[in-house]
Fold this sequence. Notes:
With about 375 residues, this protein is an alpha/beta fold. The chain is built from seven helices and 17 strands. The protein has a five-stranded antiparallel β-sheet with strand order 11-15-14-13-12, with helices on one face. A four-stranded parallel β-sheet has the order 3-4-7-8. A two-stranded antiparallel sheet has the order 1-2. Helix 1 runs antiparallel to helix 2. About 10% of the residues have low confidence. Keywords: Membrane, Transmembrane, Transmembrane helix.
Amino acid sequence: IVIAIILVIQFFENPILDSIGYILVIVAIFCVLTVTREYLRARKYKIPSGEIQVNIDENSQETEDLDKHPLNNITEPIFKIGFVGDIMKMNKFELRFNQEVIDFFKGVDIIVGNLEGIVSQKKGPIPKQSHADPPILTSLKTILTNRTKWLLCLSNNHSIDFSNKDFHESLDKIRNDPQFDVFGRNDVPNVFVKGIPINIYTATEWSNEKNWDCISKYNHNAVNVIYEETLQISVDKAFEVAMQWLTSQHKAKIKKSTHPTFIEAKQGTMMANTGHDPNWKKRIRINFYDLNNSKILIRVEASPLSRNILRVEKLKQSWYNGLFSQLFTLLRTIEETSPPEVLSKKVDGKKHCSNCGKKIEKTTTICPYCGIDIV
């Protein structure tokens, strides 16, 4: 269609149409490149039928890049779990399952899905997620069989789009239906299914309303990285240097500061999925403790703002070598030494003649060296 429009525009000599034609050419080129890229990626990462490809361990001496293993022969499972992604309200469209989707989930015991927002008749701006019932719960039931139930996750960035009260009302409405179970409230972040040792856990990293009063949140304490150093420097100067250093870092923003004891900032971008990059997104907290003898303790705490943290020790080393060592090195270069001892002047009761400069007694009225009167 775009190409046809471009060809039609060529028949008219009009600068505005020419500009539109150039824009359409750029759009067409972009679309072709995008489709080609996705096609090549699909071919590259396609999993051959009946087998999976597993990366060789980094320390392996094998010469082949990939090792192929056939899928395990699966006997009749004890319990089947199906998963779907986000269930969202899309303008005025109603949820309807294609028959292929219904067939795909036949035979499962439970379907886990992420219900974005709440079940309520409340209306709100387009970004806020509110599903009317009917039809949402009624539509979700169309995929179920007699042996299947829904397990809906209620911990996500849209959970508190309206209020804590609306969240709890929605949770009770869903839970009162025998074909639905829910989890994701902060005091019920996980569920055990049918007494079988299958524990399903949920939490969210984001909340549009910055509110985690009701929903479970990811906790990064397990990968909280701490660096400490004691320096001979005033706490005011250390605070000032740390503020200047943070503001000069890539993608760093000061979120909170209390002079001269505390700084909190966020820094970095999601450039990798393992946290090896020193600039990987993180929360930084710096505390300054004033000690005796003009010394201070500087404590830097950093925690990653992501769920997928691999090789924590490498992350710690990378963050220190590539980032926080710069701060400590900078502070050490201006580290204060003890001020030099000032010698006291001894008062000996003598003065100097203003004419010859010789030392004389303070009570002298005539200089014994040059004979001049002392004023």
